[in-house]
Amino acid sequence: MRYLTPSPSRNSSWRSGEKLANKLGIGHGDTVKVSSNRGYIKAKAVVTKRIRTLKVDGKDIDTIGIPIHWGYEGVAKKGFIANTLTPFVGDANTQTPEFKAFLVNVEKV
Fold first, then answer.
1. pTM of the model
2. First to last CA, the chain
3. What is the DSSP letter of 82?
4. Which burial class, exposed, middle or buried, applies to 67 when counting CB atoms under 10 A from its CB (0-12, 13-18, 19+)?
5. Can you tell me the distance from the alpha carbon of 19 to that of 49, in angstroms, rounded to the nearest whole number?
6. Does domain 14-108 have CATH number 2.40.40.20?
7. Can you tell me which residues the record assigns to a coiled coil (predicted)?
8. 82 phi and psi, to 5 degrees?
């Protein structure tokens, strides 16, 4: 059944827009380190036009994407999953965990 229903804890890739990738000198397939206050993951970069820099209050805000599960096997080191990065805090307004949007640093390895 593994091939019909992949494990939700498979490794994921890091997805970035072209503008951020160019700024950091990261190319498609490069290994990157994504870190937060809780830890870090290493993954292969997927540079795509689908993720763009946002303009918020006149400032450029870079966005990346890391799938929570259903990633491809072998694109990241075993054990490096997005949950390693997620903060252990709740949103004061909605009373829900902040698992979907939080700050990270990205660097080429």
1. 0.73
2. 35
3. G
4. middle
5. 9
6. yes
7. none
8. -60, -30
Any idea where the domains of the chain sit in the sequence? 14-108
- Render the burial of 12-40: b for 16+ CB within 10 Å, e for the rest: bbbbbbbebbeebebeeebebbbeeeeee
**Cα–Cα distance measured from residue 4 to residue 87, given in angstroms and rounded to the nearest whole number:** 31
Q: How many residues does the chain have?
A: 109
Q: Are 53 and 17 in contact (CB under 8 A)?
A: yes
pLDDT in 10s for each residue of the chain, 109 residues: 344 444 444 445 556 788 899 999 999 999 999 999 989 988 889 999 888 888 899 998 999 988 776 556 665 556 667 888 888 888 788 888 787 788 999 999 9
